[in-house]
UniProtKB/TrEMBL annotation:
Gene3D superfamilies: Tetratricopeptide repeat domain. Belongs to the VPS41 family. It is found in: Endosome membrane; Late endosome membrane; Early endosome membrane; Lysosome membrane. It is a peripheral membrane protein. It comes from the Eukaryota. The keyword Transport applies. The lineage of its organism: Eukaryota, Metazoa, Chordata, Craniata, Vertebrata. Plays a role in vesicle-mediated protein trafficking to lysosomal compartments including the endocytic membrane transport pathways. One of its GO terms (molecular function) is zinc ion binding. CHCR repeats lie at residues 470-614. Residues 693-741 form the RING-type domain. This is Vacuolar protein sorting-associated protein 41 homolog. InterPro entries: Beta-prop_Vps41 (IPR057780), Clathrin_H-chain/VPS_repeat (IPR000547), TPR-like_helical_dom_sf (IPR011990), Vps41 (IPR016902), Vps41/Vps8 (IPR045111), WD40_repeat_dom_sf (IPR036322), Znf_RING (IPR001841), Znf_RING_Vps41 (IPR057779).
Amino acid sequence: MGVCSEDGKVQVFGLYSGEEFHETFDCPIKIIAVHPHFVRSSCKQFVTGGKKLLLFERSWMNRWKSAVLHEGEGNIRSVKWRGHLIAWANNMGVKIFDIISKQRITNVPRDDISLRPDMYPCSLCWKDNVTLIIGWGTSVKVCSVKERHASEMRDLPSRYVEIVSQFETEFYISGLAPLCDQLVVLSYVKEISEKTEREYCARPRLDIIQPLSETCEEISSDALTVRGFQENECRDYHLEYSEGESLFYIVSPRDVVVAKERDQDDHIDWLLEKKKYEEALMAAEISQKNIKRHKILDIGLAYINHLVERGDYDIAARKCQKILGKNAALWEYEVYKFKEIGQLKAISPYLPRGDPVLKPLIYEMILHEFLESDYEGFATLIREWPGDLYNNSVIVQAVRDHLKKDSQNKTLLKTLAELYTYDKNYGNALEIYLTLRHKDVFQLIHKHNLFSSIKDKIVLLMDFDSEKAVDMLLDNEDKISIKKVVEELEDRPELQHVYLHKLFKRDHHKGQRYHEKQISLYAEYDRPNLLPFLRDSTHCPLEEALEICQQRNFVEETVYLLSRMGNSRSALKMIMEELHDVDKAIEFAKEQDDGELWEDLILYSIDKPPFITGLLNNIGTHVDPILLIHRIKEGMEIPNLRDSLVKILQDYNLQILLREGCKKILVADSLSLLKKMHRTQMKGVLVDEENICESCLSPILPSDAAKPFSVVVFHCRHMFHKECLPMPSMNSAAQFCNICSAKNRGPGSAILEMKK
């Protein structure tokens, strides 16, 4: 609806319809407000302000009738109509009228009466149907219209007004408008000149404030440049707003300024203008549903270009991951841009490797860039990138070309081996790994089952890491036989020994055909393990072993072989003559437990006092010490003889004590068992029709109980008819169980004879 008034004329016309009317009144009209729903036929009402506040209504005969709502308090300078409530301001304050109840429900007095109301008019605006905002001078009041409780009615209006917020501003208020929970305030500003110290009119301000209970918080403030602001007064500015469009109109004598609420697109425009691309991108992502003029991708691309222009290549490349996402075409475009500026290395760590996958040429281009200048970086990319991203054969050829210039470059060789592995050319890869002595060689063999490829490379594997190589070969005997390994190591006996030794430790019998060879291998490369080998092997030829040990003068091994071959006396002689070790000789004699050896040992030691001392200390439990003592020559000085004799006596006493203890235990056990046997033999034995004679196998008892019978029952529970038992011999009158005697269980004497 459009409304205009001039002197006593009022015109109302539809902005979007052809409806129009005009009326002439007999009094000047200062201000006018129409019913919010004036377009409806039932709401043809408006109010005018001057000396009086008049309400005009159209009657059923299309005539207008008027009613005075208020008068007598000076000119009415502001009227606002919302729903069923009309608010107006005069020289004394602000009133609210309820159009339904036809009652005035409040009077809000003017605060600063020193200000002329015609120079500093009141500004009114409705936030909603029950919230009125009043701005007058520097004061702002937020009033809420509430329903009065029925018990409080009496003669009072049904509604009342409560001031929920009141605060002061720095400047004079020329207009108010609501903005969600905030307020838009048009302020008239006066400032004092620093030069002349005189007050002058400054540019008007449009502020957004957040009302609080007793104060306010400034959200934003903008100074407006309007023509002639130096001559304007507070009453010369007006603020109107359009609710549906969020538009605000600042009216001055010479200009009309239209303001609108900034949206996220405006904010992004400002950020882009200030080259704050990262903040602009973040703002667009947060408000992507609300932005209309911008696209996140466009902002992101602008950000990447800005970073590149600034020389921040690594940051630009890193941002590509987030901004380009899965757009393969954009990725390829950006890669070429980085190539043009010579920064392919910067973008390489961030290239997509799965979703999406770029053209192979892109990845090959970057690999070639690294291959020309950075072998380590090239190797890293080969390890990190899946092999299906690029043409493997092209890269292999490129690496081989570079190796022609630097054939010993370990980084390139290792990378080439990895490329061969991906290409399933395991033979070439294995050869390179062995040349480099690389730790992954065994893993490669196991992973790809390359045992057929290493049959002629066993020496290389053993040279690299003999322990791992032997373990792998022994774990896979079914793939590489023991015979094949031994043949391959024939020219490297030290490695052959390592393999056969590990094989023998695992199984004493698997490599028995090589035990004869192992004797010389142990003798040459590992003598400490020769004697354990001779002891554990049952397939070792003793004569050959003895010959080798005698040739090399291996006394301990020769002693063992002599004793094993039955030549204990020669072995003992060798210990005494070669080793001169009485303790070892005594230990050997104890192991053999042969009286002749003890005799030989005594004879050899009889003229050697240290040997006699050793014998006296250890012989007591195996040979009678008297035999040795009687043979000692008179006057021979024997070291520690007294201690040795004391030990002999102690050993003898210990033996006596042990024998007496054993005897006591034996007697006690015999007595206990005898009592147990006696109790057992005293028990009765059940004989019934089911028992049979162990000789004739017929029932032990006759079927006719009246017939006489004679039965013999032994302690072993075997039963016989008396006539079935053989007659006792002339040497012994005792009778024994034939069955138990035949099974060598010992004779079972008769315990019971039954007759009838």
